[in-house]
Design brief:
Elements (H helix, E strand, L loop, with lengths): L3 E4 L6 H13 L4 E4 L12 H8 L5 E2 L3 H8 L5 H16 L3 H5 L4 E6 L2 E6 L26 E4 L6 E5 L2 E5 L12 E8 L4 E8 L3 H9 L3 H13 L1
Parallel strand pairs: 1-2, 2-3, 5-6, 6-8
Antiparallel strand pairs: 1-9, 4-5, 7-8, 9-10
Helix pairs in contact: 3-4, 6-7
């Protein structure tokens, strides 16, 4: 039995990443697939380097919309620049940009129960799309037995027309419960998909304070925490 920890949207929250690694270790994860957005929101100067050096060499990394915007130098509108300029500049100035440019937009695994597609967004728009529980019917039927995505920061798993659609949520900036990160622990040979949750405490606020993250990020996290 091979257990894969599928995770997404760390967004520079290194404290939450360490807690994710500990949870994955307890879950006996054998390997890792990252669905992108390691950067954005929290401009931690060494987070990306620390993450890449802490995961096994065979870890699969996909491009998220934030990495793609840096590569394209497409920083969207003024709000995005205000929130993410420091994060994007850190990646542009680092020696890791060439490594990130090599990350694919999707990954496919064939297992005993059929194929599994991994993207940051959606099957149709793998980098910028948004797989929500409400949008699942628009992506069905699918040729794949499993579809895994991130980007929305809201975890769910739903079966429709024999396909398991799973959004793994966010490690570093959850938007359903602001202090509880998420990832998926999967075994494709056994057809098992298990959404896992772990406590990230006040790490968003602490990381923003320590590394100059925009106040909006802390306020957003607090809002999601108090709404649930």
């Amino acid at each position: 039995m091979t257990r894969i920890a599928v995770f997404s949207d760390i967004h520079g929250n290194l404290t939450a990443f360490w807690r994710f690694l500990k949870s994955a270790e307890i879950d006996n994860a054998d390997s890792f697939i990252c669905l992108g957005d390691l950067i954005g929101y929290i401009p931690h100067p060494s987070a990306l380097d620390a993450i890449l050096n802490s995961l096994p060499a065979d870890t699969v990394y996909l491009l998220g919309n934030h990495e793609q915007m840096v590569i394209n130098q497409d920083w969207r509108d003024d709000d995005s620049i205000l929130l993410h300029r420091k994060c994007y500049q850190l990646l542009m100035d680092s020696q890791l940009l060439d490594t990130v440019k090599q990350w694919p937009q999707s990954h496919l695994i064939n297992g005993r129960f059929g194929s599994a597609l991994f993207v940051h967004g959606t099957p149709a728009n793998p980098t910028f799309g948004r797989l929500t529980e409400e949008s699942v019917p628009s992506f069905s039927p699918s040729e794949h037995a499993f579809v895994f995505a991130g980007n929305t920061h809201r975890p769910f798993s739903r079966v429709l027309n024999s396909t398991v659609f799973t959004n793994v949520g966010s490690v570093g900036l959850p938007r359903d419960i602001g202090c509880i990160g998420s990832y998926a622990l999967i075994d494709l040979d056994e057809g098992i998909v298990d959404l896992r949750r772990f406590d990230i405490g006040m790490s968003i606020q602490e990381e923003c304070t320590s590394h100059g993250g925009h106040n909006f990020v802390s306020e957003l996290s607090f809002r999601y925490s108090t709404q649930n």
